[in-house]
Amino acid sequence: VREARAQGLSAPLVLMGYDNPLLAYGEERAAADAADAGADGFIVVDLPPDEADAFRRACADHGVSFVPLIAPTTAESRMGEVASVADSFIYCVSVTGTTGGAAVPPEVGDLVATIRQHTDVPIAVGFGVSTEEQVARVGRVAEGVIVGSAIIAAIEGGSVEGCVDRVRAYVERVTGRSREGA
């Protein structure tokens, strides 16, 4: 993160991972180091908001966001509680299962609408988003579109030297925007 910032990256960077490595490293230290390096937040996929008080405080103390997740399996009665801890955006998991697997289901708009009943915080949809059509469809119902596995595949798809060009080409293709036209 620090190196990317030093090279001029200004886009928000949110770190995504699991709770155990954070606990082993130290939640306070993780939040402080992430902020110092230039990260903007954390998505901790296995840390429910009601168990995240200490980490959320550490994030707030260091000016980084804690981004909660809401999935199709989240009970509507719980969505308000989850949404209440969002300080930047909510990660809406479009499908159950593992990332990079199933495609975005047609019902994603209904899920976003249900979440929207509980918050005004921006909602970004991820999991199963990889094609131009999916990016466009998700972009019509949510404020943000998260593409993960397809970008990782582009990164891993060749030489280190060509990494940036592969990712740029992929992003330009699925968004219909070029760097010059952005």
Task: Describe the 3D structure.
By secondary structure, the chain is an alpha/beta fold. It contains nine helices and seven strands. The strands form two sheets. A four-stranded parallel β-sheet has the order 4-5-6-7, covered by helices on one side. A three-stranded parallel β-sheet has the order 1-2-3, covered by helices on one side.
Summary, kept brief:
The chain has 182 residues and is an alpha/beta fold. 44% of the residues lie in helices and 12% in strands. It has helices at residues 2-6, 19-25, 27-37, 53-61, 76-83, 108-116, 132-141, 149-156, 163-175; strands at 14-17, 41-44, 65-66, 69-70, 90-93, 123-126, 144-145.
Total number of β-strand segments?
Answer: 7
Q: Percent helix among the residues?
A: 40-55%
Biggest sheet: strand arrangement? 4-5-6-7
* Rounded average pLDDT: 91
The topology string of helices and strands comes to HEHHEHEEHEHEHEHH
Q: What can be said about the biggest beta sheet?
A: 4 strands, parallel
Structural class: alpha/beta
Secondary structure tally, helices: 9
Beta strand %: 5-15%
Low-confidence stretches: none
Oligomer: single chain
- Tell me the radius of gyration: 17 Å
Overall spatial form: globular
| Distance between the amino and carboxyl termini | 23 Å
SSE layout:
Blueprint: H1 2-6, E1 14-17, H2 19-25, H3 27-37, E2 41-44, H4 53-61, E3 65-66, E4 69-70, H5 76-83, E5 90-93, H6 108-116, E6 123-126, H7 132-141, E7 144-145, H8 149-156, H9 163-175
Parallel strand pairs: 1-2, 2-3, 4-5, 5-6, 6-7
Helix pairs in contact: 3-4, 8-9
